[in-house]
Design a protein that fits this description.
The chain is about 45% helix and about 15% strand. By secondary structure, the chain is α/β, with parallel strands linked by helices. It folds into three domains: about 1-50, no CATH class; about 50-155, ATPase, nucleotide binding domain (Nucleotidyltransferase, domain 5); about 155-234, no CATH class.
C-alpha cells in the first residue's frame, strides 16, 4: 500500500520506505490498516458526493471469509448528474449472523454513516435465499417497511448461476467432472497428511514450471492456498 501511494505522489515517496526518517517506514500491519481505512473513507465521500440528492438502489450479498467470519458486501447503484448509471462498492461489514434483521440493521448503519436514507432506496437486489427474499420477515420485506418504493429484484447474476448449475447437471460429462472434483477435495481435505503431500507436489510443479520459463515470478505470484469446496449458489 505504501509503495502504491509513493508511486503516485512524490512527496509521499520522499518520506516512506527507504527514504523514511529513522525507522518510520509505515509498514506495520496497524499502520497499513489505518491507511486503508483513510483511503476507504475518501472513496466513500467521493461516492456520496456523486450521488447527491439522487435516489439509489442497493445490492447486497454475504459470504464467509477465510477466518470463518460472515462478511456482507454492499454495492450502490444510481444515476449521476450526467444521466449515467453508476455502480460503486460502498462497504464491507462483518455481521454476527445472516438473519434478515441483523443484515437490515447493518445496512442502515452503513447508509447513515454515509448520510444516505433508507427512504431513498428505489430498488434492492439479493440472491434467492429465504432470509433475503422472504415475503414477511425477509430482508426485502424489512426494507420495504421503511422504503415502500424499494422494489426487490432477484439478482440476475445469481439467476444465471442457478440456470448454469441446473443445465450442467443434465450434461453427464460436466456432472461427472464436478462429482469427481468434490470427491478429490473431500479425500484430500479430510487428512492433513494428504493435504501436505498435495501442497508439496504443487510446490514442486511450480518450481519446475518456473525453471522452464512457463511461469513468471514476482511478489504475490504463484501463491498456494487451502482447497475450497465447490458449492451451489442460492
Amino acid at each position: 500500500m505504501v509503495k502504491l501511494l509513493a508511486s503516485y505522489n512524490k512527496e509521499v515517496k520522499g518520506v516512506v520506505l527507504e527514504n523514511a526518517p529513522r525507522n518510520a517506514k509505515y509498514t506495520s500491519s496497524d499502520v497499513q490498516k489505518e491507511i486503508l481505512s483513510i483511503v476507504a473513507r475518501k472513496v466513500q465521500k467521493i461516492t456520496r458526493e456523486e450521488i447527491g440528492t439522487s435516489k439509489f438502489c442497493i445490492m447486497v450479498d454475504e459470504a464467509r471469509d477465510e477466518s470463518k467470519k460472515e462478511q456482507m458486501a454492499i454495492v450502490i447503484r444510481f444515476v449521476n448528474k450526467e444521466g449515467l448509471i453508476k455502480e460503486h462498492f460502498l462497504d464491507l461489514v462483518h455481521v454476527k449472523d445472516t438473519t434478515a434483521l441483523t443484515l437490515k440493521n447493518s445496512i442502515c448503519v452503513v447508509l447513515t454513516a454515509n448520510s444516505l436514507s433508507i427512504e431513498d432506496i428505489r430498488g434492492q437486489g439479493y440472491d434467492g435465499a429465504s432470509n433475503m427474499r422472504g415475503e414477511r420477515n425477509g430482508l426485502k420485506a424489512l426494507i420495504l417497511n421503511e422504503g415502500p418504493y424499494a422494489y426487490y429484484i432477484h439478482c440476475m447474476a445469481h439467476q444465471l448461476q442457478l440456470a448454469l448449475v441446473a443445465s450442467s447437471r443434465k450434461v453427464q460429462e460436466v456432472h461427472n467432472f464436478f462429482q469427481h472434483a468434490t470427491f478429490i477435495i473431500n479425500v484430500v481435505s479430510s487428512s492433513t497428511k494428504r493435504n501436505d503431500e498435495l501442497l508439496a507436489a504443487q510446490a514442486e510443479e511450480i518450481a519446475r514450471e518456473i525453471e522452464l520459463g512457463e511461469l513468471d515470478t514476482g511478489q504475490g505470484a504463484n501463491q498456494m492456498s487451502s482447497l475450497q469446496r465447490q458449492g451451489d449458489t442460492r
